[in-house]
Amino acid sequence: MNQRQRWPEGKEGTAPKAATRRGKDGDGAERHEVIYQSISDAIIEHRLKPGARLREDALADVFDISRTGIRKILQRLALEELVTLTPRRGASVTRPSADEAKDVFDARQMIECGLIPEITRRITREDIQTLRDMATQEREALRAGEQSTAIKLSAAFHGHLAHLSGNATLAAFVERLCSRSSLILAVYGNPGHLGCESHDHEDLVSYLEKGNGERAQAFMGRHLKAIEASLSIHSEEDEAPDLYTIFSR
Amino acid sequence: MNQRQRWPEGKEGTAPKAATRRGKDGDGAERHEVIYQSISDAIIEHRLKPGARLREDALADVFDISRTGIRKILQRLALEELVTLTPRRGASVTRPSADEAKDVFDARQMIECGLIPEITRRITREDIQTLRDMATQEREALRAGEQSTAIKLSAAFHGHLAHLSGNATLAAFVERLCSRSSLILAVYGNPGHLGCESHDHEDLVSYLEKGNGERAQAFMGRHLKAIEASLSIHSEEDEAPDLYTIFSR
DNA sequence: CCTCGGCAAATCGTATACAATGGGCGCTCT
DNA sequence: AGAGCGCCCATTGTATACGATTTGCCGAGG
């Protein structure tokens, strides 16, 4: 479609863009989605660390697209608060503040626990099997030392669980909270001890299978509290020191 | 939140609104914010009805800006689900489905009620005064027959209340839910009987003032249920009739 | 040696030009 | 006359060019 000799300036010949050379002419919208997922995954998996700069030109070059498309994607990520857009400085992976971290986990506590009753009511046998598979897969990844994968699978587990409530709006919100949690873990987490304990999710599924909603709810509460407690939250007020407020007369 | 960098020249400190992020302004970004607010308000106030088309050219012309800027704003509105972006047909004001309506009100029920205890704990005398003023203002507008204003003020009331919980993340989510609620009222509401009863908010403030969190919480629950019950939700399966499902063998 | 001021490079913000797609509408054939 | 078909226009999607601003460097002066 638009895949003709771009960049007459050269510099194209020597740089083999490793990045999933999208099949040309793939319909435009699809390509955007793929790129969005790529960046989003990279952030969630901590392959892009908080604070990392995301230059538009570089991304445009890597994904073989114009800056226009990249900006669109970057904006979307910014609205989901995975990246921070500073007016004339470009985009960077969001570095959550301590306050934000607390807010996010409080929100998860409220919503994910609040969703459990409805989930218990609606869950089917197939759902339980799917969840169990996801939990297993996650533990496998954890044991194999693939932290990136484990982090993503953990978020996926929580997201999938939320969707079982039947409330798409809240589920979407939970997904976003999980993404942000991943960022929080990257900043405040202790190495070698990432958020979810390996067996937690499987235990949770067991409670759900037994139809024991109250136990499941309490367990989810403890689970989230445990993750939050495992963080070492230091204020670290280095970035954007907000000078105008600090030195305001 | 560390998004406060104010330029010393700026003085537009109308704090209570603070709808979203966007701290940095400079010069050009401010204009975008204004335009965004204009469109957003127009939608929330039902001056733009669900289904209304929003042509990029027209908007660009009205606001004296290039289509680039309009697209950016439209995308933001789309991510907040106030407008729907259809691939090659442009933007239109979102027409919420019946399912979405239910989801939104369930979500509000969970979150706004869940927030009340913390709000009760944190609320100050000034906060109560502010809330009372807002409620009064809202009733005034309602009595004056200014529905548009009343709708916006109602959403602002719920949003402001949520902010008093101290959880900016959840508060932002509540704000978005309120915006969407406004859309839902536009589609499923009965004329002459818009969502919030005129005295409801003032009653709620009274409970909060007495520090009676449980009463306040129960009242909020009833309040939201009442709004939801006042809707006449007909599925209205006209658009996108999903022929494949209907005629599936 | 330290500091201040200007210059240059880098990078984002905006506008405009171009391409492509889908719908509306008139023409023609039966 | 009705229906089918194809062209034209309206509208969006994408790319690139240009302008603005910020940053970092380097040289000059105290």
From TrEMBL, chains A, B:
Residues 1-30 are annotated as: Disordered. One of its GO terms (molecular function) is DNA-binding transcription factor activity. Coiled coil: none annotated. Residues 1-14 have a biased composition (Basic and acidic residues). Residues 29-96 form the HTH gntR-type domain. The keyword Transcription applies. SMART domains: FCD, HTH_GNTR. Keywords: DNA-binding, Transcription, Transcription regulation. It comes from the Bacteria. This is DNA-binding transcriptional regulator, GntR family.
